[in-house]
Amino acid sequence: EGFFVFFLFKVRGPPPAGSVKERPAKHTAFRKFYERGDFPIAVQHECGGNKIAWKVQIEELDYHYFLPLFFDGLCETEFPYEFFARQGVHDLLEHGGSRILPVVPQLIIPIKNALNLRNRQVLCTTLKVIQHLVVSAEMVGEALVPYYRQILPVLNIFKHMNVNLGDGIEYGQQKRENIGVLIQETLELFERYGGENAYINIKYMIPTYWSC
Amino acid sequence: KMPKDSEVTTEADIKPKSVRRAKTWSDVVENLYRFQQAGYRDEVEYKQVKQVEQVDFWPETGFVKKLQRRDNTFYYYNRQRECEDKDVRKVKIYVY
């Protein structure tokens, strides 16, 4: 009789939790400020690709105001917002020097928002930006250690997202679009530049990570 | 005897006599690429037009760091190489 009941009431597994499902992106403050004309930037269409022309010298910009705004634009996926955010962050980090370190706490929320979208393209861009941030200035890697518990959970979800080609050749390796590889590179940079406590903090959030 | 890529000697008020295209990448070609991307022939024309004595270079690599275009906007360049192999042929080397 129990066997008959089993056939009547089919047991189903739990519903998917949606941990890797993309979340809808909202319009960011970066988009609002850009459309208002608050950013001193313009796009130049060169033969090798687009480039940002700055109307004001980067050395004169207030990093406390602009850098978090540009990081907020990492959530964008449409042109020109995505281009300006990505390239603008790159230029600001490349030429920021000692002005980046005091702004690091303000960058955590925009980074967390970008990672939480679970959008594959946004994930790749954000991971590359994080890698650049870690090596951009002295002590930035160590300054990020207290914020690992806010950034690393999403990386833990996507860490396994690799491609198993067997003995095939990954022709797109140079494009650096493999999320699993990017996450591994990012974690290794965190460990290298994060000081003594970096590894134990990474291990706490991502138990399957091994020291490089 | 053809002058080498590194033998671009100039004076401020002399216009270039000849031009040729770069064949292989070098530090000089990289800097020329950056100047030409900003709309100038080379460092000589940039100093003539902008009336500056020195150009911003990256201390680690010696590549151009920042240039002001003719419309007074600024171009910022990376510390590392930006000129890809496919763009080397587009770089013009002016001989004075």
From TrEMBL, chain A:
Can you say what this protein is called? PACRG protein
Entry's Pfam families? ParcG
- Which organism does this sequence originate in? Melospiza melodia
Residues in the signal sequence = none
Q: Which InterPro entries match?
A: Parkin_co-regulated_protein
Gene designation: Pacrg
Task: Kindly list the GO molecular function terms attached to this UniProt entry.
Answer: Hsp70 protein binding; Hsp90 protein binding
Can you quote a single GO CC term? Answer: neuron projection
From TrEMBL, chain B:
Pfam family for this entry, one: Meiosis_expr
Q: Which InterPro entries match?
A: Meiosis-expressed_gene_1 (IPR020186)
Q: Which domain of life is it from?
A: Eukaryota
As for family, the record states:
Belongs to the MEIG1 family.
Which PANTHER family has this protein been placed in? MEIOSIS EXPRESSED GENE 1 PROTEIN HOMOLOG, MEIOSIS-EXPRESSED GENE 1 PROTEIN
Protein's job: Essential for spermiogenesis.
What name appears for this protein in its UniProt entry? MEIG1 protein
What is the native source organism of this protein?
A: Melospiza melodia (Song sparrow)
Classification lineage: Eukaryota, Metazoa, Chordata, Craniata, Vertebrata
Provide the Gene Ontology terms for cellular component.
nucleus
